[in-house]
Write a structure and sequence with these properties.
Number of domains: 2
CATH class of the largest domain: Alpha Beta
Number of helices: 12
Largest sheet: 8 strands, parallel
CATH topology of the largest domain: TIM Barrel
Radius of gyration: 20 Å
Length: about 290
């Protein structure tokens, strides 16, 4: 599917009245499985990009080229509209322009740029977060909008309610909305009252990091939220399954004992698209 069509799919969600959750994907296999069960939108977060490519914590040691390469691998096998966490844009406003160019070329449907100063500076307390100035963030967002070639590419400005109080965060969100971005991405939401206040102040679609489990998506939708991310349950499930299978086999367990815990041969054939490759062999290797 053409990239513009996928970007329009993502934009249609933001223009609608429902709040949806993309599949939390991280590699070609996870994307293909998510698509097979019906997902049309996938989200690749910075944490998942790091886990799937480097097996490291979310400490900004991934490079832009590594992220773009992973996206291209996913896009080769999947027609999910991909929403990408582009972190801080990999540097200053000029780096943000390069980031938008690379990720657009890789085929993303949308991306987010955040206002956190990354990576952590020398002497900065562990787990603490520092924001860049509003002025610097405005420059980054204007640069991001300027760099995109396809106007359907969605660009969102991200901010966290964990770092500043609600009033200060709303001040930032209102400023970000003046740059030509398409949405505000809010992380750290604690209650529906915060969402109501953001909706009243910022007249853009709202995207959310994982919201409190007690808040239903229908309630989020009523107050401007159009996308809410899951946590990283799929990758955690895979890690646990791998540990269990490896442990069973390492201890001498019989492979047949795993049949009820693993994908069947037919399911794996579907994941790796055996039917299509069989046709290619018949067509071109006879």
């Amino acid at each position: 599917m053409k990239e513009t069509e996928l970007r329009q799919r993502l934009r249609a969600v933001l223009a609608g009245s429902k709040c949806v959750s993309p599949a939390d994907i991280y590699d070609p296999v996870s994307a293909r499985v998510a698509e097979s069960v019906g997902y049309e939108i996938g989200a690749l977060t910075g944490a998942m990009a790091l886990i799937s490519t480097l097996a490291t914590p979310d400490l900004m040691v991934l490079t832009l080229s590594e992220l773009a390469s992973q996206i291209r691998r996913i896009r080769r096998v999947s027609d999910l509209a991909l929403l990408i966490d582009a972190d801080h844009g990999y540097g200053n406003a000029l780096n943000v322009m390069r980031t938008v160019e690379e990720l657009e070329h890789a085929g993303v449907a949308g991306l987010t740029i955040e206002d956190t100063r990354l990576p952590r500076s020398f002497g900065q307390p562990e787990d603490s977060l520092v924001l860049i100035s509003i002025e610097e963030m405005l420059g980054k967002l204007r640069a991001a909008v300027s760099a995109r070639r396809d106007p359907s590419l969605l660009i969102a400005g991200r901010g966290s309610l964990r770092i500043r109080n609600l009033d200060e965060s709303i001040k930032r969100f209102k400023a970000y909305a003046t740059t030509g971005i398409d949405a505000i991405f809010v992380v750290g939401l604690e209650n529906i009252e915060q969402l109501k206040a953001i909706q009243a102040a910022v007249h853009l679609p709202i995207m959310l990091g994982p919201a409190p489990a007690a808040i239903k998506r229908e309630a989020l939708a009523l107050h401007g939220a159009r996308i809410v991310l899951h946590s990283h349950e799929p990758s955690a499930a895979v890690a646990k399954a791998l540990h269990g299978v490896y442990s069973h086999l390492y201890k001498g367990g019989a492979p047949a004992d795993l049949n009820s815990r693993i994908a069947s041969a037919q399911e794996m054939d579907s994941v790796v698209n055996v039917a299509d490759f069989a046709k290619r062999q018949r067509d071109f290797l006879k």
